[in-house]
């Protein structure tokens, strides 16, 4: 079967064959001009609205045959057809435009020599690759032995096949040029001999097909986000260029909105505030969502920018990421606080890190310990090292060593000389040898020291709840009430610590971290959880229904102070104020009923056990089903807003992990905009696969013993939300972050101390400035007032 005609043939009539390979091509514009010269208007060639010539099937009529016989034809090859259309005075504008675009290479691609091709993306040599491979297979007899089904593809089938090529490329993280690999072409030819008619080139996949699929994904995103409350978050990622990723999280699912090039741009507070405003405006303008919160890092520029943002737009919540490395009240800084208050713990952590690094860095030493493990446990497990950017690994590393205590001690006692000899090896230098013997002896003595193991157990017990809450805070669906309860659990853990010095010091430091949080928002979110309310607050909390109502109304009025999109007249403003006053009254009355368990809330309490049995403790689902009550609707809407706020940058970190997979060392020329499109399409494909059951759910790691989980932070019902997902970890540092020596541990500890001191200084400056001081925000272009 002859190949499909190229786009140029829509402007030509195909005549008889000029030779064994090509047809005669007659310009439709010339035919129409000859017909009009004859003065016959019947059955003329119609020019449609797109200025493209189309025939009312006149080829069988005499006037058409006369015109064909009278005009000069051209050979039906691309070069001749292009030359004629460009110079023809009778060709339409559409014909001339297409001819010029094809000649300058602006078209979708290149046609074959006879102007007939299925998809024309890519330079000529790319398209020729298919023909070359097919000819090679014919010569070698492979195509004859494994000839695929000889069935042509329809236009619809071609489009579907090419779209699937794009989806397969993104889903399997294949390079765009994989379809040009000769072995891949041979494989598809074995399935279908006409496969090369529809196989796209790398230019087609990375160009038109990727753009079309990204447009489809964008439409789905608009549908999912339109009219919903969302949390915008941003974070930086460095590869060849510095880029900032912007995500919007709605309903516990994050969507990549934009990827911006930030190299050379200012990072001060005013510049960051302007960038945050642009992120929010773009999300609301293009996707129709309602941004109620902005989450970012808490470093200098981002912290100042977020403060300016709240001043410019007081209806927004501004949170520091509750799971990020620069976060001011969780993870890293609480670990830093602990080691500042516990010199013994600091020394033990340093010794442990040095010991693990020593074992891992000396193969013959490690082999001896592995042999003892196999004798005692029938298998040998690894000696885990902590990672700089993954706070939970410190706890995991120490607990693994405690698990290996019997084997490590036995090896240190019974095979001491063998271990020392393995460490020294063939070293002949006397001084170096003495130094190596001293190092091995030091670590072997440490392994045989009961005090070391006692201190290590104490350190592991103290940092485990910190790492546990870090795990909780990394979840994409983690709510503010869960963060607050976990934070309180860590406070209670150290309040009851056996060492009075650590107890007093840690309580003071954690209270400072709490003072830096948006307390109204976190407290009200917990109270609006119908499964919690104030059940977690003790008698010393001083929480009363009326006091909580005051906090609620203060937060509600602040968030609902968002100005209308356009200026209002005096009458409209009066009506708006009256409507706000009515809604505020409804919220206040509904909250009092909620706290008293009256009306619809009494019905929920009666059915609570049955609800939990079927739906679990999902507070958002409870409030969504209360929206139907007009007396409760406004409070329900506000509760959904608060409970739906994302408190971390899990979506951004997951995007960065995906970027590192897509933009590898061999694909470092991939532009960041193309990376953005691939990430969006890939995320949509993964969501489809998950919904269809193609992806088996990943088993969650058990970093904490089941018998200890309930007591770690005294909120056992939140054990199920622990998300040990590597993709939610900070991926901004591309270099190796393993802590495998005492010196590395000291450097890490110094960094923690510096960050902790900086955090304290910033909080003290905020406290000294006072809450009544007015800070002038920067002038942000396009910011709403």
How is the secondary structure organized here?
Blueprint lengths: L11 E6 L5 E5 H10 L8 E2 L5 E2 L7 H9 L3 E2 L2 H10 L5 H12 L19 H17 L1 H4 L9 H17 L10 H10 L10 H24 L3 E10 L3 E9 L2 E9 L7 H19 L2 E7 L3 H13 L4 E4 L11 H10 L1 H19 L1 H15 L8 E2 L4 H12 L1 H10 L1 H9 L5 H18 L2 H24 L6 H16 L4 H16 L3 H9 L17 H15 L10 H27 L3 H16 L3 H6 L8 H11 L6 H13 L9 H21 L13 H7 L25 E2 L2 H28 L16
Parallel strand pairs: 6-9, 9-10
Antiparallel strand pairs: 1-2, 2-5, 3-4, 6-7, 7-8, 11-12
Verbal overview:
With 785 residues, this protein is of the alpha+beta class. Among the domains are: 7-104, no CATH class; 124-216, no CATH class. The strands form four sheets. The chain has a five-stranded mixed sheet, with helices on both faces. A three-stranded antiparallel sheet has the order 1-2-5. A hairpin with a 5-residue loop joins strand 3 and strand 4. Helix 17 packs antiparallel against helix 18 (430-447). The longest helix has 28 residues, at 742-769. Residues 97-135, 763-785 are annotated as: Disordered. This is DUF659 domain-containing protein. InterPro entries: RNaseH-like_sf (IPR012337).
Short description:
By secondary structure, the chain is α+β, with helices and mostly antiparallel strands. 57% of the residues lie in helices and 8% in strands.
Measured distance between first and last alpha carbons? 67 Å
What percentage of amino acids are in beta strands?
A: 5-15%
Number of E-type strands: 12
Low-confidence stretches: 42-56, 107-124, 325-331, 715-736, 770-785
Largest sheet: 5 strands, mixed
Order of strands side by side in the largest beta sheet? 8-7-6-9-10
Count helical runs: 31
Class of secondary structure makeup: alpha+beta
Helicity level, as a percent range? 55-70%
How confident overall, as mean pLDDT? 81
Note the overall shape.
flat
Q: What radius of gyration results from the CA coordinates? A: 35 Å
């Amino acid at each position: 079967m002859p190949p499909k005609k190229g786009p140029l043939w829509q402007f030509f009539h195909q005549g008889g064959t000029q030779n064994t390979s090509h047809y005669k091509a007659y310009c439709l514009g010339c035919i129409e001009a000859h017909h009009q010269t004859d003065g016959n208007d019947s059955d003329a060639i119609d020019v449609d609205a797109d200025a493209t010539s189309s025939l009312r099937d006149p080829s069988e009529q005499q006037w058409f045959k006369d015109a064909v016989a009278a005009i000069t034809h051209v050979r039906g090859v691309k070069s001749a057809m292009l030359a004629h259309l460009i110079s023809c005075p009778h060709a339409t504008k559409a014909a001339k435009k297409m001819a010029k675009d094809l000649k300058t290479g602006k078209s979708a691609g290149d046609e074959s020599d006879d102007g007939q091709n299925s998809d024309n993306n890519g330079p000529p040599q790319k398209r020729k690759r298919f023909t070359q491979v097919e000819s090679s297979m014919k010569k070698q007899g492979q195509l004859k032995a494994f000839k695929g089904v000889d069935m042509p593809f329809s236009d619809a089938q071609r489009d579907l096949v090419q779209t699937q090529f794009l989806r397969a490329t993104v889903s399997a993280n294949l390079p765009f040029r994989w379809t040009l690999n000769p072995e891949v072409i041979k494989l598809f030819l074995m399935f279908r001999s006409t496969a090369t008619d529809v196989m796209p080139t790398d230019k087609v996949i990375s160009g038109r097909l990727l753009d079309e699929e990204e447009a489809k994904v964008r439409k789905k995103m608009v549908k999912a986000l339109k009219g919903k409350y969302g949390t915008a978050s941003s974070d930086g990622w460095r590869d060849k260029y510095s880029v900032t990723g912007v995500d919007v999280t709605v309903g516990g699912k994050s969507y990549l909105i934009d990827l911006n090039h930030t190299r050379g741009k200012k990072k001060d507070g005013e510049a960051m505030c302007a960038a945050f405003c642009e992120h929010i405006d773009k999300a609301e303008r293009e996707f129709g969502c309602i941004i109620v919160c902005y989450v970012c890092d808490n470093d200098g520029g981002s912290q100042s920018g977020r403060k300016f943002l709240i001043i410019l737009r007081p209806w927004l919540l501004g949170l520091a990421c509750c799971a990020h490395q620069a976060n001011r009240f969780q993870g890293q800084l609480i670990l830093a606080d602990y080691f500042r208050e516990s010199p013994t713990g600091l020394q033990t952590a340093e010794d442990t890190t040095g010991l693990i690094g020593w074992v891992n860095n000396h193969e013959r030493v490690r082999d001896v310990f592995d042999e003892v493990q196999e004798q005692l446990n029938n298998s040998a497990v690894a000696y885990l090292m902590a990672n700089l950017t993954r706070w939970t690994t410190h706890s995991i590393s120490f607990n693994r060593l405690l698990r290996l205590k019997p084997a490590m001690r036995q090896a240190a006692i019974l095979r001491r000389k063998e271990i020392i000899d393995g460490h020294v090896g063939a070293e002949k230098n006397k001084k170096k040898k003495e130094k190596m013997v001293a190092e091995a002896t030091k670590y072997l003595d440490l392994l045989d020291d009961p005090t070391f193991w006692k201190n290590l157990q104490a350190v592991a017990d103290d940092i485990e709840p910190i790492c546990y809450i870090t795990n909780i805070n990394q979840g994409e669906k983690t709510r503010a009430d869960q963060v607050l309860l976990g934070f309180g659990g860590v406070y209670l853990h150290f309040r009851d610590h056996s060492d009075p010095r650590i107890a007093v010091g840690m309580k003071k430091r954690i209270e400072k971290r709490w003072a830096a949080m948006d307390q109204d928002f976190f407290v009200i979110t917990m109270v609006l959880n119908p499964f919690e309310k104030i059940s977690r607050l003790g008698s010393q909390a001083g929480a009363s229904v009326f006091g909580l109502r005051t906090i609620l109304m203060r937060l509600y009025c602040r968030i609902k102070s968002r100005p209308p999109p356009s200026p209002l007249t005096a009458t409209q403003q009066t009506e708006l104020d009256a409507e706000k006053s009515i809604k505020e009254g409804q919220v206040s009355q509904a909250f009092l009923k909620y706290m008293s368990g009256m009306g619809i809330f009494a019905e929920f309490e009666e059915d609570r056990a049955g609800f939990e049995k079927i739906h679990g403790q999902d507070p958002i689902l409870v409030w969504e089903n209360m929206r139907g009550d007009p007396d409760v609707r406004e409070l329900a809407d506000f509760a959904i807003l608060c409970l739906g706020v994302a408190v971390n940058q899990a979506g951004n970190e997951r995007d960065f992990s995906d970027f590192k997979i897509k933009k590898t060392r061999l694909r470092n020329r991939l532009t960041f905009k193309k990376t953005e499109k691939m990430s969006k399409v890939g995320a949509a494909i993964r969501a489809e696969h998950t919904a269809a059951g193609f992806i088996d759910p990943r088993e969650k790691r058990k970093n904490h013993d089941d018998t200890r989980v309930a007591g770690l932070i005294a909120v056992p019902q939140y054990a199920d939300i622990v998300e040990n997902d590597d993709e939610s970890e900070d991926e901004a540092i591309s270099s190796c972050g393993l802590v495998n020596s005492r010196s590395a541990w000291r450097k890490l500890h110094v960094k923690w101390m510096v960050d902790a001191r900086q955090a304290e200084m910033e909080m003290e400056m905020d406290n000294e400035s006072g809450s009544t001081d007015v800070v002038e925000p920067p002038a942000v272009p396009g910011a709403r007032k």
